[in-house]
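Could you join me in thinking about how sequence relates to backbone shape in a protein? We need material for that, and I hope you will provide a protein of your own picking. Once you have written the record down, we can walk along the chain together:

…
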Amino acid sequence: MQRTIAALVVAVLAVSFGSGCVIGRHYDGREIDPAVLDQIQIGVTKKQEVLDIMGPPRVFSRVELSDLAERLVARVAGSSDDISITLDPTLFDEAYLYEYRRENETFFTVVLLYTYFMRDRKSDELLIIFDQNDVVSHVAYANGTKDLGFF
């Protein structure tokens, strides 16, 4: 009887010390306040104003034409004909991407026999495109973190 109780105590201790649960949250980036979007107006707001309001973007994108020009020159090298090229002005537009991510994580294990891990990741994204005059031409906003539960 004492051996059974001792074995049971050892088993309970092994399960207790070999089991665990961890719950955590992770935040990445700067939160995007939807009220700030009213300050950014298409055709009015300049790039510097956006930088003053939002700070630096997570991603900056601009079309680089140097590679395109080199390939074009290589194709027509040796040709005596004059070349005329018309480029779409939107090729020179710049884009700023602002992103805020949240993650909820849950980890549970029982004496290494059973392990459960779950991660739920959502993000808010704000895309702002500027024309050649550094004026906002497009704005797109997606609020994904509103769909993320507490846990």
In short: Strands lie at 19-29, 59-62, 94-110, 114-130, 136-143. Helices lie at 2-17, 47-54, 66-76.
